[in-house]
Amino acid sequence: MTFRVRCELDYILNNPSTFLFALKCVETGGQKIHNESMVTTPGLNSEDFTIGVGMNRFTRLKTTGTGPLKVKYEADVQTSFELASVSSLNAEGPDHLIPEAIPFLFPSRYCQSDRLRQQAQDLFGHLQTPHALAAGISDWIYEHVGYVSGVSNEQSSAVDTLEQRQGVCRDFAHLAIAFCRAMNVPARYLTCYSHQLNPPDFHAVFEVYINGMWYVFDATRLAPLNGLVRIATGRDAADAAVCTIFGNPSLQSSVVSCDCQDRDFLPITRDSLAACDQAIALL
Questions:
Q1: Which residues of 38-62 are buried (b: 16+ CB within 10 A; e: fewer)?
Q2: Phi/psi at 53 (nearest 5 deg)?
Q3: CATH classification of 2-78 is 2.60.40.2250, yes or no?
Q4: What is the model's pLDDT at position 180?
């Protein structure tokens, strides 16, 4: 499938600032970028680099003046995915994990799995396989945490979300990741453009590592799982934030879109996967 992704961010600069943007999609074995552009108005010199466990692409912009700043990114991105039978996904303990998956077992800034072990055991201890745990955790969050904009901020963590029982996609993903890690399932955070997300925005979901693949889950159920275009991955939002700012600019507007260019797009959802006893991995 091919998606055209766009974002346009408008700021007012109140003083000189430095931006670290993670707006550019990454290329993986199954995700390829065909066309891509990033433009700022006024024009600024930028520096691109990759860092982090997901080799995320960052763009650094340094401003020296004040006034309006527009940042526009667009790309055509081809994606692919793989479906697997849930019955084929066997349990794999920490003693057999590949080294690359082990960091995603540990507590992190926003996913304090060490503080949620007892709650995770009480809620999900009856689930026996990594997929059953991830699916059960995702379902529980969908059913018990309200999706409410404006109730959380950049300081909100998984523990906060569990206590408040409300948040947005970022918070849903953090809580799911913390619960998975508390149950010894490697889990990571994924920032993405998302087809059919309403209202359109950047989106956050989570992935769990099972038998050599990262399977994707979305506790919000707000968008098709095969309509996600990967921007960045990490232990949590600290590794994969769309924008980190050093300074004090004001965001005036944010417009994000992700449109499938294929007419035969058929959405894959939690319900459709459950009906077929399948799991989905983004390649």
A1: bebeeeeeeeeeeebebebbbbebe
A2: -65, -25
A3: yes
A4: 97
Any residues with CB less than 8 A from the CB of 157 and at least 6 apart, and which? 109, 110, 111, 112, 174
Distance CA 209, CA 21 (A): 27
DSSP secondary structure of 213-277: EEEEE-TT--S-GGGEEEEEEESSHHHH-SEEEES--EEEEEEEEEEE--TT-----HHHHHHHT
Instruction: Please state whether 110 falls in left (phi above 0), alpha (psi between -120 and 50) or beta.
Output: alpha
pLDDT digit string, tens, across residues 203-226: 999 999 998 999 999 999 999 999
Architecture of domain 81-241+267-282: Roll (3.10)
Distance CA 27, CA 76 (A): 12
Query: Do residues 68 and 12 make contact, with C-beta atoms less than 8 angstroms apart?
Result: yes
